[in-house]
Request: fold
Amino acid sequence: MSYKTAHAPHLRRSDRFSFMCADVLIALAPLSIFSAVYYGFRPVLLVLAGLVSAVLFETIGCLLMRRKPTVTDGSAAVTGAIIGSLVSPLSPYWLPVAGSAFAIFSVKMPMGGSGRNVFNPAAAGLSAITLCFPGFFFKYPDPGIGLPLPLSKTVNMASVPSPASQLASGGQTLYSPTMLLLGEIPGPIGGTAITILIASALFLLVRRAISPLITLPYLATCAVLASIFPRVTGGTAGSVMVELCAGYLLFCGIFLLNDPVTAPRHWLGRIAYGVLAGVLVMLTRYFGRFEEGACFAVLLVNAFATTLDRFGWYALNLRRIRNRRRS
Amino acid sequence: MSKLTNSGIFIPSLKQPAASRPVTDIPTPERILVPLVSGDGTFCRLTARIDDTINKGGIIASSDDNSMHVYSPVSGVLAGRQAVLHPIYGNVACAVIENIREKGEDEKKESDINLSGDEVLEIAREKGIVDELDGQLLAEKLAACRNSENLILIADGSDSEPYSSSSWAVINESCPEVYRGLKLAGIAVNTNNIYLGVRLGKKAFSSLQHKYMQEIEPSVFINAGKKYPVNYKFEKDLFKSHPTVCRIGVQACLALYRAAAFGEAPSSCIVTVAGDCVANPQNVRVPFGTLVEDLLRFCGLAQNPEYVIIGDAMTGIAIQNTEIPVVPGISCLLAIKNRVQPPAHACIGCGRCARACHAGLLPYEIMRRLDNMQYERLDYLLPEECDGCGACSHVCPAGLDVTYKVLEARDAQGNIFVKWGTGDEL
Reply:
């Protein structure tokens, strides 16, 4: 009788990449539900539009490349859901679809598909729609309107300045720390609910889907820069609070930077990556054309991920490598 | 599910019920196949004649320079030679021994074991004692770390892999003898820092120390903890300040003691037979050369296995054919139907392999460079320091054979990387 052969080990953890993606989707769900409390069902539809279109585009991409569809791993769904979560509740439905199309067809599939992309597809998709349609992207409704947004294709409604745009223009902030924490501020669908974002981050940390070695240095760097170079009046603590809660800085630290495919794997590389991402995010805020440019910063720091990873390890093992090469 | 920590993993123990059952002796097999390979891997010539009756411990083959021998593990008739494709030795000639008879063991007198280091090494070499932890010749292993400064010598009875409990069975049966063997090994490497590593709960550990208090100092026993692989605990935790930590198997220690005291060549080993297809998982004492098929038949199969593995679940080799002999170095045999294997996917870069690696390597990077044929840049990542523990593959959520790739890089180093670009050999 002939038995099957396989390489050791013959006992594996019953872990899957799809489980990690499912965790991220679970962590993203409360954000759109929270937004639905303020704006009605429209934000949920926008997130679903991004998610469904990304899955569809990846299936088409795999079929065009004559590959087995990789949608079951959930990475396309995460990309689409992130894009959908970072558009404004006033956006037309085609906006997250356009972002997903760019993310999948221009960034993910040409590099070889799931697991092989150098740049974060969601950040690339967001960058594309930020650059092409800033009018739609940074137009936020007032959370205090008390009425659900219409579900029609386009919504003609006056927009209010978000904390990020106030930071860009300087002066006194209009939003108190309580409002910032409770998410009663204008902003992208998933970027305003700070308390829920923190809860999602804790859930993902417990599930080991994200690394604190990226998120914490990133937030610390942003906080240090915000305290050294405040853009609003009201003291250091106020400046740090508004900078961290405005736009989608926190969302970026939890969901975009922790994409395992594009982030470094080694602990020292991860810390350096978090710090560099923090510096770049704050630089794009201080000197960028748009009120929020975290997606551009993520793309920039993605380019350094492999180098940081490698040099982090080399720095720690220099003596070992030298000894080995000598012997 | 196993738990991932920095530099190692916690694997759920699957040792029961085999670990709690007594060791059984396999009934005398009809025939056995003894590979004509000495302990150091040298192929030997058959010296006994076909149809000759040979006694247990008698020499049946010798190396060309007559320095290494193959001993008969049983008494019987040498029926002929047979070629076997063995997963460890490759294509190897085996001596077929039939009409095996059980011979009552003569009462052997223990000889004086006040030996010098050189004498111990000579005995270990002559009797071809193999360390079951890595299949290396014990004498070579001891000679390599002999006179190392501040050396720690550990008889590792921790059975750190999930199924195996054969080392514990040996300690349970003959702990004082193992300790005497360890002392001899300590003399051979010129160190007094000898320890006996076990993997027990606090209560069981202290009762073990108490049980052998008369013969063995309690401080000799060390608890290896539950982390896999066990090297990390010994090298980076318990004996951090010691530059060299040498681990040898308890079966090898026992064989060394028997060889020194009674002049016996090792003839059998204890093998844990387990897995979801085995009807009676247990530790079995088997003469070398017994066929895997006979061993599985003895323990019974509850269902037809899809995989038969020699070695344990983390480092074992899956074999296609069970008509191969048990050789020194095998301490576990698994018959498995349900093997968890996540669907293969491109590396997602989660970094779990780097976290799990107790040697502090970057398995994903080694794999990437190997796949991209960047051989000249592979050297810096030290793939030769991998010991193949399998922790990286075990935790990979993308279902990749990371360990296999790193070992490929390690083993190919001499053949490809050094010669890469010279153009002479390629």
